[in-house]
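Figure caption, in words: inputs first, then the predicted bound structure.
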Amino acid sequence: MFKHHTHCRACNFAFSAPGTKCQPNDRLIPVLDLGVQPLANDFRREDETCEGHYPLKVMLCPRCKLAQLSVVVDPKTLYSNYAYVTSHSQTMMRHFDELRNDIMVETTVANSVLEIGSNDGTFLAFLKNNPFETVLGCDPAENLAKIANGRGIPTFCGLFTVENCDCQKAKDVVIARHVMCHIDDWTDFMVSLERVTHDESLVVIEVPYYKDMINRNSWDQVYAEHLSYMSIGAMEALCARSSFHIHTIKKYGIHGGSVVFFLRKNGSVVKPVPYAKDEDQALGEWQMLSDNKEDMVLELKSLVADLRTQGKRVAAYGASAKSTVWLNACGFTAKEISYICDNTPQKQYTFSPGSNIPVLCEGMLTADLPDCCICFAWNFFQEIQAKEVIFNKTGKWIVPVPSVKVM
Ligand code: DWN
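Bound structure (DWN present):
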């Protein structure tokens, strides 16, 4: 199930849905089109049916320049039983440490924390008694909320909405890591934030930064979960119609480049810290990304075809959401890519959405030693390469982002 997106979720600019009569400037501007694709995390076992395919098109708001998908897939379809689990990698733990330190720089009041989109509670477990006494999670994935509650991280299983958060007490810190861009109704989101915060609360919103996507050619972060591709201007437009303002901004390398917006309530005694604004070249940047996407898909297809002609065996590493986007954009199946190695139990012994390439455990790479391996978890490549010492001796890595490269 999906619906057509008809209002910019940042500045609320009303534009006409496809097929209706409208003036040229009141329509979202199409900037990147990946055709029709399966849901990026719809990893299913042999006897399970997939959720189907959906349009994957990025449009740009002509007013605030927020890039956003043309359709919205029902969140219950996407998240009730979710395959993505927060990484336990050293890369992620270093990021948690840096983010926790930056939160503590911005606030002295840190007894209670709510995390929206808390997944299996990994980040909250990191923050518990370090320094937060009270932690609470909120996540719509029943399978992940069960894990979090089982490990002693109290987690409300449901979407973060006004209706669901009324019962919550105000928290000193509210964190939303890589969840805001998954949310359709930002007006409801900001009102919900107001309900769960007090006058001096700190809100910490981490999202992929669209300029890092442009600079790293990471068009593979476009999939049905990512309804919006955040810019500083879009957050400013949203805050302008809310009771929050941007206190400060910090950028991080995690997930291919992310930005954290530290928000505070209007009227807070803490004064905002000046930050650099986006230069507005969004239309040209997205059009360049779209052109680069075409070239990169052709490059990977022709590289894999050449390797197969030479009789080489090609596998992949990291059954990421990004891998699903690549595999479907290239039209690969198990004929081209034998399997994908992955350390997520929820994904192992399933099949990649659309390509039906089997997902196997990490150990398969050393056991099988293919000639080449495409790392679709390119954002963790250094850490992955460092641990796959046997494969490094005999095989070749292919890293597809920011450009298709044989390492
Ligand atoms: O917004 C989102 C981002 C934050 O994470 C979610 N919508 C979905 C998800 O995107 P992703 O699936 O592209 O995320 P990752 O974390 O880049 O995926 C990495 C994949 O690689 C995971 O399936 C785990 C796997 N992996 C592995 O097998 N061995 C990762 C590491 C570091 C490893 O050592």
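Residues 84, 87, 89, 178, 225, 255, 318-322, 342-344, 347, 362, 377, 379-380, 383-384 surround DWN (CB under 6 Å).
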